[in-house]
Amino acid sequence: MPARHSITGVLAVTLAAATVAVQPASAQLKLPRVSPNATVSQTIGLTDLSVTYSRPGVKNRTIWGDLVPFDKPWRTGANEATSFVTTGEIQFGGQKLPAGTYALLTIPGRDEWTVALNSEKDLWGAYEYKPEKDVLRVKVKPTAGEYEEWMRFSFDDLTNASANLVLQWEKLKLAVPITVDVNTKVLADCRAAVAAMKPDDWRTPYRAAGFCLENQVAMDEGRKWIDKSLAIGQHYSNLSLLARFQMKDGKRQDAVTSAQKALAMVKAGKDTADTVPTERLLKEWMASK
Predict the structure, then answer these.
(1) Helices 236-248 + 252-267 axis angle, to 10
(2) pLDDT tens digits for 141-190?
(3) Which of 52, 53, 66, 237 allows an S-S link to 82, with CB 3.0 to 4.6 Å?
(4) Of 148, 179, 210, the domain-final residue
């Protein structure tokens, strides 16, 4: 009898332990954040930029100089410090910034803010912020903005080579200019691609030449690339591009001839393309006699 009681007791303990084991641990409980997470991203040229942050709300509070003190480091959001990522070298506020991931912190002032990018990217808030780890600092003057209940970042005033990283919250707006040397990077890629192209690849030099013409850069290289493309094979696309180069060089009659040849290839069924853009240009060129 004592042995039976002992076995029963062991079974009871084992079952109790199993019951506890199947219960979810309290650490697994996930609740919504008071300040929700957000990520905003933008591509400039070939460079991808992103900001990951948490969005606090105004909630009828006094923000500047109170909830967010002046002259003290701020995580620029809630929870973890805001993260800024760039996949290529950029100019951030006029200063060179290598590709990488950085903590973005600010020091708000009444008339001027300091925006800092710090190499310690896994900070919680600004509690362990070390100014000596800053990769760069820029000074920015805030301006008045439309009311924003929830703090937000955005990439505004976008061009082919620039944008402003904008912070808006309550009635304040802060903009940091970002520029990317797109042409240098793309031209280097074009040269490498043309050097490595297959003998029958007319499209690569055609595309490289098109970039030069569209952006008015390295035009002499662009002319060589379009000639290289045409030497491999004549098509509506590269003939039309040749016509545009010729018109750019003031060779109107040559441009008209090349455009007509390009259109004739499509009309004869030797190529398939949307000819409307070249037809419009040809009409303009012929009317300018």
Answers:
(1) 170
(2) 999 999 999 999 999 999 999 999 999 999 999 999 999 999 999 999 99
(3) 53
(4) 179
Task: Let me know if residue 112 belongs to a domain.
Answer: yes
For 110-127, what is each residue's pLDDT tens digit? 999 999 999 998 887 677
Q: What is the dihedral of CA 230, 233, 236, 241, to 10 degrees?
A: -20
Assess whether 161 and 111 both reside in one domain.
Answer: yes
Inside any domain, residue 146? yes
Q: How far, in Å, CA of 170 to CA of 249, rounded?
A: 53
Give the pTM. Answer: 0.80
Which among 249, 230, 228, 251 is positioned nearest to 239, based on CA atoms?
A: 230
- Together in a domain, 140 and 198: no
pLDDT at 6: 46
